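== Sequence and structure of one protein ==
=== Format: two labelled lines per protein ===
==== Data for this protein ====
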Amino acid sequence: MNALDPVARLRVLAAGLRAPMYAERRIGLPFEQVWAVIADLEGELPHLVSFVREFRVAAGDSERKEARAVDVLGLRGPFEVRLGPGWCLMQSRLVTMGMAAVPDDGGTRLAVCGAMRPAALGPVQRAYRRLLGERRTRAFFREVERRAALR
């Protein structure tokens, strides 16, 4: 049996979470440039996700890391982060966010996923999908591409 590539793996995760935000795009820049933006969580995540003001990741070389997010209202929350080549999964007690990428014919296939974890928040997620989901994903991809082109 073939293993799923990171983008396919994130697609499966998003389906299981019934994620209100999931999208894939091809970016015409090399994987290394695009992934350098995604993997720089402290430096780049506040530019890519509009409601994140600060994201601090504990030092270390491990694929599993602890992090602390501060949102635009000043609320703070701990996250568990799994970060490896082409794969980033961040989870708090309320939110799951994932990003995945694979090389794609000289460019990069990039996916992003976001979901709230408590099942009781299902109606909120469905409303978010209708009202903001597509706009947020377009903004995310646009900013990744812009920032990767600068590298």
The chain has a mean pLDDT of 89. The chain is about 40% helix and 35% strand. The beta strands are 21-27, 52-57, 64-71, 76-84, 87-91, 95-104, 107-116. The first strand starts at residue 21 and ends at 27.
